[in-house]
Automatic annotation (TrEMBL):
<dbReference type="InterPro" id="IPR036761">
    <property type="entry name" value="TTHA0802/YceI-like_sf"/>
</dbReference>
<dbReference type="InterPro" id="IPR007372">
    <property type="entry name" value="Lipid/polyisoprenoid-bd_YceI"/>
</dbReference>
<dbReference type="Pfam" id="PF04264">
    <property type="entry name" value="YceI"/>
</dbReference>
<feature type="domain" description="Lipid/polyisoprenoid-binding YceI-like">
    <location>
        <begin position="24"/>
        <end position="188"/>
    </location>
</feature>
<keyword id="KW-0732">Signal</keyword>
<protein>
    <submittedName>
        <fullName>Polyisoprenoid-binding protein</fullName>
    </submittedName>
</protein>
<feature type="signal peptide">
    <location>
        <begin position="1"/>
        <end position="20"/>
    </location>
</feature>
Length: 190
């Protein structure tokens, strides 16, 4: 009798866990940044980040699925140098007046246990959409003591060929086509 009671309780617990609902996390803008790095004539690295972004992540840890939808304001670029910011926003590079936002929508999450290790999706940048894979450098969920809610996030990276998106300024001068993108992201459970 005792064994069947334990088996029934275990089955009920497993059934409840298997029916876990997807959870929505709102991107927390003060802990989320999209940055890029590109070599400058093989001597140093130019860096910039986008300060305005918004989006959501839907995560179902039990089903090992998820969806992310993040939009970046291209005019919020900050390289640390105003003249370079203006050049980056100009028609020669990002053309922020014509293409004011970039958007990443990922719907294929890869997990290792409870940790997200990769997100595959589509990046729309400079009016063009192409597949992009974000690889997790780390990922964690925790109970935030300040907001009293679960927060999930991590650091992700991808390498893009910028010419694929129509951003080809300086290629004929030797600027590289490859750009490293690093995403720092945290989302608060809603």
């Amino acid at each position: 009798m005792k064994i069947s009671l334990i088996a029934t309780a275990a089955a009920a617990l497993l059934a409840t866990a298997a029916q876990a609902e997807p959870v929505t996390y709102k991107i927390e803008p003060t802990h989320t940044y999209a940055t890029f790095e590109i070599m400058h004539f093989g001597t140093s690295t130019n860096r910039g980040r986008f300060d305005k972004k918004e989006g959501t992540v839907v995560l179902d840890k039990a089903a090992k699925t998820g969806k992310v939808d993040v939009t970046i304001d291209m005019s919020s670029i900050d390289s640390g140098y105003d003249a370079f910011n203006k050049h980056l926003m100009s028609a020669e590079i990002f053309d922020a007046a014509k293409y004011p936002t970039a958007q990443f929508v990922g719907d294929k999450f890869t997990f290792n246990g409870d940790k997200v290790t990769q997100i595959d999706g589509q990046l729309t940048l400079h009016g063009q959409t192409h597949p992009v894979t974000l690889k997790a450098l780390n990922f964690n969920c925790y109970m935030n003591p300040m907001v009293k809610r679960e927060v999930c996030g991590g650091d992700f990276e991808a390498n893009l060929m910028r010419s694929q998106f129509g951003v080809d300024y300086g290629l004929n001068w030797g600027f590289p086509d490859n750009v490293r993108v690093v995403i720092q992201v945290e989302g608060v459970k809603q």
